[in-house]
Task: inverse folding
């Protein structure tokens, strides 16, 4: 078992969200669903706690009620190897959600994600500070991050 596990609080969509997330990422699965019993704080039979893995990383999701909601102060960062992976994840996670800036989005459950191509940190750490600054400025103008735009900025191509 991993030492630290991300714990997500949902109103009543924990099982639905876990099913959605595990349908998007490879090497993902629902591990366990604990349901509210008769007389519990939630409707009998509704998922109380869902344990699941995304790309081998374990998560717990609780149906805890509407008292707490997600904010951008916490997000899940996804390292993407290619533009195709960025495009696919962006389309699937914004379906019913909303785009933000700089590779950030909120999914249909309000959870924030950063969908980041591996090229971004690579281009941001080039030895030429002017090129890194151009990459930063290009990224700041994007919603979904486009690798070609970052590469053009690094080269000084408009």
Result:
């Amino acid at each position: 078992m991993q030492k630290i596990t991300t714990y997500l609080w949902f109103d009543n969509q924990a099982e639905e969200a876990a099913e959605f997330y595990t349908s998007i990422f490879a090497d993902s699965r629902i591990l366990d669903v604990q349901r509210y019993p008769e007389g519990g704080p939630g409707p009998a039979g509704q998922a109380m706690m869902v344990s699941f893995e995304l790309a081998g990383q374990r998560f717990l999701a609780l149906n805890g009620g509407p008292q707490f909601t997600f904010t951008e102060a916490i997000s899940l960062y996804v390292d993407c190897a290619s533009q195709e992976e960025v495009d696919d994840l962006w389309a699937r996670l914004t379906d019913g959600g909303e785009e933000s800036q700089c590779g950030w989005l909120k999914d249909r459950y309000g959870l924030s994600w950063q969908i980041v191509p591996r090229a971004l940190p690579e281009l941001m750490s080039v030895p030429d500070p002017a090129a890194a600054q151009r990459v930063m400025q290009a990224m700041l103008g994007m919603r979904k991050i486009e690798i070609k735009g970052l590469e053009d900025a690094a080269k000084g191509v408009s």
About this structure: The chain has a mean pLDDT of 97.
